[in-house]
Amino acid sequence: MAKNIWGILIIGVVLFAVLVKPEPEPAVEKKEIPVVEEERPSTEGGALSAASTDLSVVLKRRKPKPVVNIGAILPLSGNDAEVGNSLKNSLLLAKDDLKYQQNLKYKYYFTVDDGQDVATAYEKLKNAEAKAVVSLGSAAGKIIAPLAEKDKIIHVNFGSEDKSMVQGKYNFMNWTMPERKIERLVDYYEENNWKNIAFIGADKTQEARVQKLAEKHGIKITFFEIGTGRKDFQPVLQKSKDAKPDAYLVQIESTEAENFIKQYKEAGISVPLTDIEAFSEIKDTALLEGYCYSDVAQSMDIFNSRVREAYPDTKSDYALGTIYDMVMLFVQVFENAETPEQAVGVLADTPEYDGVIGPVKQNNDNIFDSRAILKCVINGKPEVIYDPYAGHSH
Q1: SS3 content of the chain, % helix, strand, coil (to 5)
Q2: Model confidence, pTM
Q3: 270, 356 contact by CB (below 8 A)
Q4: 214-242: buried (b, 16+ CB within 10 Å) or exposed (e) per residue?
Q5: pLDDT tens string for the chain (394 positions)?
Q6: Which CATH architecture has domain 2-35+64-174+299-362?
């Protein structure tokens, strides 16, 4: 029941902010995001002194709320700065929206630090007595996970599929897991009656997942293994033609994807090419014309536009809804816990939540596993073809 109410509150906040359109606060340049202290009665001019007997003035003084510090470690500089700073803006919007929440028992103080030196950034958050930390990607998450477990600080990682990070009591993940993305792609094969798929990749674990799910639908997967960092894909492409596939599935690093696609076309292969998430990182989307791929759950355009309106320097849509939802989820669990130290138990016992990216369910491994969507590149632009939450299905 609490989950449903919280979901309604979040959706209500978003709709209220869209309709009322309050004057946006200017983007905060500093990494520390201050929470404004409540006003207190002035003591100037004898308005309130230690000997004052004016009870009406004394009663107006409100006891300051206890503070909960929440930290985020994001790539604010370097190659992924565009993504990191956009995520920071979405977190800022969540902070702004907390003013719509009435009767919160805590004040929430946020610190966003650069992930170029993850260990140092984490240490700063620890010294600031952060009760919860958000991290992006497996590299940062794997550094923070053992530290957070030792220090008893809630840590939620997103943007990674590495389940090794959720060992222990204090580590969680919030992302679309590989099985969801594979299921979405296999459903797409079945809808098109594609029964013979050539899978080119370097990950045997991923192959096993694909094989397992495809077998349930009577779909044959022929795996062609390649090494990482390969530049010449022609030999494996020529070999794969013998399988006479209805479609291809490629699973390689996004940095190799553009080279692979060019050679795929040079090989004269005309059957559809599909992928799991990597295509979403290719900036020259014209290369992907007619190709489809499964991707992680995303927030709708109405929310992404809100972030851009409030913070015009937002350049990326990547996971904007996910980090916003995580801030709101943190607030939910701290408010529902009797003490901040008991919030980790409340989070572990939260079976699902409703946020701006839709419903997200927690499995038994401390993973909030969101739905997968299907995108196809049409006229040079990725279009959502299937998203059950947003109502896309065509």
Answers
A1: 45, 25, 35
A2: 0.80
A3: no
A4: beeeebebebbebeeeeeebeebbeebee
A5: 444 444 544 555 544 454 444 444 444 343 344 443 333 333 333 333 333 345 454 445 567 899 999 999 999 999 999 999 999 999 999 999 999 988 999 999 999 999 999 999 999 999 999 999 999 999 999 999 999 999 999 999 999 999 999 989 999 999 999 999 999 999 999 999 999 999 999 888 899 999 999 999 999 999 999 987 788 999 999 999 999 999 999 998 888 888 999 999 999 999 999 999 989 988 889 999 999 999 999 998 899 999 999 999 999 999 999 999 999 999 999 999 999 999 999 999 999 999 999 999 999 889 999 999 999 999 999 999 988 776 544 4
A6: 3-Layer(aba) Sandwich (3.40)
Q: Judge if 2-35+64-174+299-362 and 178-296+373-393 fold alike in CATH terms.
A: yes
Contact 327, 33 (CB under 8 A): no
Cα dihedral 3→373→162→83 (10° resolution): -90
* Residues 6 or more apart whose Cβ sits within 8 Å of residue 269: 237, 241, 248
Q: Which two tokens stand for residue 345?
A: 């138990």
Q: Which fold has domain 178-296+373-393?
A: Rossmann fold (3.40.50)
Residue 283: phi and psi, rounded to 5, are -80, -35
Residue 331 · residue 350 · CB < 8 Å: no
Place of tokens 């094989």: 211
